[in-house]
């Protein structure tokens, strides 16, 4: 049985669905940003409750905590994710001579990093503080850089596989790895007590919105016109 290969994009994709997705993501993203910036009491109480519970688990389950530190510091670390993105950009140039698409991929990752660092500085949210911490992290808390970077990189790579017509098996494996990575890195950050739950949700939302806006830009200005 013939398995479809990853080949050049067959046509200029439609942008209407992407616009709807971006609009749907923008509302909860802005709402959460405003609630965090204003320190909305019900959200802060919810974050406190989740953090207290997961921190007790992290202290009690040292083996699980160590495994989560390895995953978050090495496997799902933002540097690792950016290296994966760089490898994909090199593949696009080497295999398909898609210079514009490779640049678009690199720029999107860079913009995502700039957005998260800018928001961290602007919101200035303090991270959870513990008398017996199991891990540490730098910079402000909101949004989670790990969660946002994983969402951006995995989202972009999944869209590239779709664009290039990857086979069903490849797509399903990539989707499963992406879901585990994006959810897993967020949960490890909460478990390790270095982020509030809303920081992680904010990272997921901002990452997904970044991907949607980047895809919109590519479809509008960068997609090849092919019949």
TrEMBL record:
<dbReference type="InterPro" id="IPR000326">
    <property type="entry name" value="PAP2/HPO"/>
</dbReference>
<keyword id="KW-1133">Transmembrane helix</keyword>
<keyword id="KW-0812">Transmembrane</keyword>
<feature type="transmembrane region" description="Helical">
    <location>
        <begin position="21"/>
        <end position="41"/>
    </location>
</feature>
<feature type="transmembrane region" description="Helical">
    <location>
        <begin position="74"/>
        <end position="94"/>
    </location>
</feature>
<feature type="transmembrane region" description="Helical">
    <location>
        <begin position="139"/>
        <end position="161"/>
    </location>
</feature>
<feature type="transmembrane region" description="Helical">
    <location>
        <begin position="101"/>
        <end position="119"/>
    </location>
</feature>
<protein>
    <submittedName>
        <fullName>Phosphatase PAP2 family protein</fullName>
    </submittedName>
</protein>
<feature type="transmembrane region" description="Helical">
    <location>
        <begin position="200"/>
        <end position="218"/>
    </location>
</feature>
<dbReference type="Pfam" id="PF01569">
    <property type="entry name" value="PAP2"/>
</dbReference>
<feature type="transmembrane region" description="Helical">
    <location>
        <begin position="173"/>
        <end position="194"/>
    </location>
</feature>
<dbReference type="InterPro" id="IPR036938">
    <property type="entry name" value="PAP2/HPO_sf"/>
</dbReference>
<keyword id="KW-0472">Membrane</keyword>
<feature type="domain" description="Phosphatidic acid phosphatase type 2/haloperoxidase">
    <location>
        <begin position="101"/>
        <end position="215"/>
    </location>
</feature>
């Amino acid at each position: 049985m013939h398995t479809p290969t990853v080949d050049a994009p067959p046509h200029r994709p439609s942008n209407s669905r992407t616009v709807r997705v971006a609009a749907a993501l923008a509302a909860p993203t802005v709402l959460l940003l405003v609630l965090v910036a204003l320190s909305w009491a019900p959200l802060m109480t919810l974050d406190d409750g989740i953090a207290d519970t997961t921190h007790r688990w992290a202290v009690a389950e040292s083996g699980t905590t160590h495994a989560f530190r390895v995953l978050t510091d090495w496997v799902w670390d933002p540097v690792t994710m950016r290296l994966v993105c760089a490898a994909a950009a090199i593949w696009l140039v080497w295999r398909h001579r898609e210079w514009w698409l490779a640049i678009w991929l690199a720029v999107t990752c860079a913009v995502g990093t700039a957005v998260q660092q800018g928001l961290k500085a602007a919101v200035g949210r303090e991270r959870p503080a513990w008398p017996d911490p199991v891990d540490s992290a730098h910079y402000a808390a909101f949004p989670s850089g790990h969660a946002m970077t994983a969402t951006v990189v995995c989202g972009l790579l999944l869209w590239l596989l779709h664009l290039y017509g990857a086979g069903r098996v490849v797509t399903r494996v990539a989707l499963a790895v992406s879901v585990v990575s994006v959810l897993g890195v967020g949960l490890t950050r909460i478990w390790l007590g270095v982020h509030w739950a809303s920081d992680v949700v904010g990272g997921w939302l901002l990452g997904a919105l970044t991907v949607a806006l980047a895809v919109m830009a590519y479809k509008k200005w960068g997609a090849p016109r092919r019949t």
